[in-house]
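If you are new to this repository, start here. Below is one unmodified record pulled from the training split, so you can see the exact layout before writing a loader.
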Amino acid sequence: MFIRDVIQDREPYSLRASASVLEAAEFMAERKIGAVCVLNDEDKLIGVFSERDLLSRVVVLRRDAATIRLGEVISELRAVIRCDETPHQALERMEKIGSRHLPVVDGEKFVGMLSIRDLLRVQLSEQGDELKLLHEYISQ
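And here is the target side for that same chain:
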């Protein structure tokens, strides 16, 4: 299984750096997501905005979320995962950078976001398949 398989039926959520923090918070709340990728005007991935960024860079500092632009408060892009990499590689990368989200790219193009929850679903599915095989083996 590859990352492209994990995110294949999902809309690639993103916002422009010019969007307000308030717009981003509303966008994330409506979709029940914890982070969103941020693109520049040329559709190039430039960073990630997460709930943690909202708390530490806006709320705690009492900044006005309606007037601050995402480009001012995003986290720098520390890592990405390619479509042709595996969930195991993604988990290792997340652990290395201390993040629960990884932007997914196909070449230079942003195509989605991978979360630790996605990787847990993959792992549970694989364990379920292994249990079925073991049960069938024992039953024979």
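Two things worth knowing about this chain: The chain has a mean pLDDT of 91. The beta strands are 14-16, 35-39, 45-50, 75-76, 81-82, 101-106, 109-115.
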